[in-house]
Design goal:
By secondary structure, this protein is mainly beta. It has 2 helices and 16 strands. It has 2 domains: 160 residues, no CATH class; 75 residues, no CATH class. Strand 9 and strand 10 form a beta hairpin. The N terminus is likely disordered.
Length: 241
């Protein structure tokens, strides 16, 4: 951990910045998910689950523009001629809509959440957002999936025990990277699709107005019926004020 006091600017004299790395394991079981809780977590006081039907615990702390959590989403992967599309862009095919979940630039694979199945091959036509007007695809894979969130309550008040020092507020002011690896029963570890709630995919997408960290995930399974173990790796900068 590195700590730097900002002395050059008078308005920042009372602030400290320090880099932090938070890595922890957590797991979801069908019973725990039905209660809107993580079955277990290395940091239970920090990590909160936001799943289908169970959003109140997180929303009581901070209301964000999350994608509606669901355990019956259609995760559709398209094999495409090189194409580009930004997260959140919406394309249509076969009378269905497909929302891009991960920005791709001149890529050969596009991952989306669809309202149904696409044609076996054909053309995706953009209806909103940023990306190519049309994207040609040669095949698709449709997998049932869950969309849910992890909320990391990083912000806290610190009261030093020695000397006449006032309480300090401790919170994240920048998030550099987030990765989540899943381990479903009978499957090898896999990197999950992660983003911030309704944010542009990339650095700082996960930072919330209150200085906490919000992670939106897509799992290629139904988390209300299938156990899932996760390893979460977050690199961020914390401000002590």
């Amino acid at each position: 951990m590195a700590t730097v006091r900002m002395k050059e600017n008078p308005q920042l004299n009372d602030q400290m910045l320090r880099t932090e790395k938070l890595v922890f394991a957590c797991s979801l079981s069908a019973a725990a998910t039905a209660l809107g809780q993580l079955a277990s977590s290395d940091v239970p006081s920090v990590s909160l689950l936001r799943s289908a039907g169970f959003t109140s615990a997180v929303d009581a702390i901070e209301v964000l523009t999350w994608t509606a959590p669901t355990n019956s989403a259609n995760l559709v992967s398209f094999v495409v001629s090189p194409g580009s599309a930004s997260q959140g862009a919406v394309y249509s095919n076969n009378g269905q809509s497909f929302t891009i979940n991960q920005t791709v630039a001149s890529g050969t694979s596009v991952i989306s959440i669809g309202t149904g199945a696409a044609a076996a091959s054909g053309t995706l036509t953009k209806t909103s957002g940023t990306g190519d007007a049309t994207i040609t695809f040669s095949s698709t894979v449709l997998v049932p999936a869950s969309i849910f969130g992890l909320y990391l309550a990083i912000g806290k008040t610190v009261t030093p025990q020695l000397g006449p020092v006032p309480s300090m507020e401790d919170y994240a002011d920048r998030v550099y990277s987030v990765s989540v690896t899943s381990q479903a029963a009978g499957s090898p570890p896999a990197s999950m699709i992660v983003s911030g709630p309704s944010a542009v995919y990339g650095a700082n997408a996960w930072l919330t107005p209150l200085g906490n960290i919000a992670i939106e995930l897509i799992a290629p399974l139904n988390i209300s019926t299938t156990p899932l173990s996760l390893v979460v790796d977050v690199n961020y900068r914390e401000e002590v004020k």
